[in-house]
Amino acid sequence: MILPIVAFGFPVLRKKCEEITPEYPELDVLLKNMWETMYESNGVGLAAPQINKAIRVFLIDTAPFIEEEEEGDAIKKVFINAEIIEEDGEEWIFNEGCLSIPDVREDIKRNPNITIKYQDENFDWYTDVFDGLTARVIQHEYDHIEGKLFIDYISPLRKRMIKRKLENISKGNIQVGYRMKFPRR
Predict the structure, then answer these.
(1) Domains identified in the chain and CATH numbers
(2) Is the whole model's pTM more than 0.70, yes or no?
């Protein structure tokens, strides 16, 4: 089932999310719905807060980036209860966007290398190192479960320049090609 993506202004997007256990009800159904929702929205990642769930779950599929850049292997993976242990390397700029903040794109600096500890959908633990665009997608989705948004990394001047766009998004004054849910005013 394709779920609505919550728009900028929803309180869940600013919450530090809770860990889950294998007893979490119908996790397999939730993950299936998240994959469908992400693909229907043309995303490369989706975090649970974006579907109004304050839990530490996100998933990524970097295939669209790999097809464009023709570099490296695509990563399709579920991350549960993730914790970034280390970020290193010289920061680099990449133009990011977010399904919860449609039609807003900004140049964001991030470290190119990360080490992350996480569980998969079977609740097996892993510690992996990722780099490049894959690391960036993971960092973006990880920020969601920490209550951060990519616009938190832009300058105060840039924030003032996009303020009206953000207000329009939170009011539902925007057209998108996927299901969205807007905060009640």
Answers:
(1) 5-177 (3.90.45.10)
(2) yes
